[in-house]
Amino acid sequence: MADSEHLELLRRIGAALERLAPAAPGGADLDAADAFVWHAEGGWLEPVAEVNRVELALLKGIEGQRDTLLENTRRFVQGLPANNALLWGARGTGKSSLVKAVHNTVNEETPGALALVEIHREDIPSLPRLLNVTRGAVRRTVLFCDDLSFDGTDASYKSMKAVLEGGIEGRPANVVFYATSNRRHLMPRDMIENERSTAINPSEAVEEKVSMSDRFGLWLGFHVCDQDTYFAIIEGYAARYGLDMGAEALRAEANEWSVTRGARSGRVAWQFIQDLAGRLGKRLE
Predict the structure, then answer these.
(1) Residue 79 contacts residue 120 (beta carbons within 8 Å)
(2) DSSP character string of 184-214
(3) Can you list the alpha helix ranges (DSSP code H) found in the chain?
(4) pLDDT class for 135, splitting at 50, 70, 90?
(5) How far from the centroid of its chain's Cα atoms is residue 129's Cα?
(6) What is the DSSP letter of 90?
(7) Hey, how many other C-beta atoms are within 10 angstroms of the C-beta on 156?
(8) Alpha-carbon Rg of the chain, whole angstroms?
(9) Scanning 18, 101, 111, 228, which has its CA 20 to 30 A from the CA of 263?
(10) Phi, psi at residue 190, to the nearest 5°?
(11) Which of 253, 259, 248 is nearest to 276 (CA)?
(12) Calpha distance 262→233 (Å, rounded)
């Protein structure tokens, strides 16, 4: 085979390999937006133009949790020591809404100071790569994982533990980690009990997994709201969006809605408001 044929063959092989190779990771421009979604497969951050959030003032019944998380985030933005935070408790009680509302409030106070990066539960094993992307950036960053938990033989919690506090490099000074979960210890009770019942030393058997939650300096509990708090949430939304209805009728309809759903929570309240606004021909803007 002639040299020219060899060269042509090598060019074709090279071109084929380039087509098969994965695309280069996108740049980590944390100034491109205020919020991002981490894509582990390509190792890049997708900017989010508009965050789906609720105004901080509309979150009722969680004032203590609000003040604690807001103060922790403000200190973080100021370059002062701040803790990772675990927001745990009942479904629909405002955990993820609080994280997004606090992020927005801090950025209103200090424009552009804080980036919010969401990492999905299934991408937790890629957390070390995400930290490498954000490490050294000037902008402060909150890494946020919604509905974090571990089941069965899932061992991804081990890499997360090391990244949060226990690794050689540790957590970068410009990053904190906020997570929400329905479970205080990030694992189901039957899983804990099973570990205890089958181990030679029951306390040591679960210590490694339970200690995952110890990496969070702040534990903020969220619980099912009572009827007065539920009505306060409904009335706050109605006033904010100009939904004209008498207080007595509003409470009666809101109560009927919660009965049909079998629960009272911020999420149920928002679902009622969406239904009410639709019936009244109002836009929620």
Answers:
(1) no
(2) TTSS-HHHHHHHHHH-SSHHHHHHHHHGGGG
(3) 3-20, 63-77, 95-109, 127-134, 156-161, 189-198, 202-210, 227-240, 247-261, 266-280
(4) confident
(5) 18
(6) S
(7) 15
(8) 24
(9) 101
(10) -65, -30
(11) 253
(12) 17
Residue pointed to by tokens 């969401």? 118
34-81 confidence digits (pLDDT tens):
999 999 998 999 999 899 999 999 999 999 999 999 999 999 999 999
Where would I find the H helices in 44-182? 63-77, 95-109, 127-134, 156-161
Q: Give me the residue label for tokens 């409904």.
A: 234
Q: Which amino acid is at 245?
A: M
Is residue 196 scored above 60 in pLDDT?
A: no
Tokens of 172: 């970068």
Predicted TM-score of the model (pTM) = 0.81
Q: Tokens 């919010």 sit at which residue?
A: 116
Q: CA nearest 120: which of 180, 54, 170, 182?
A: 180
CA gap 224, 266 in Å, rounded: 9
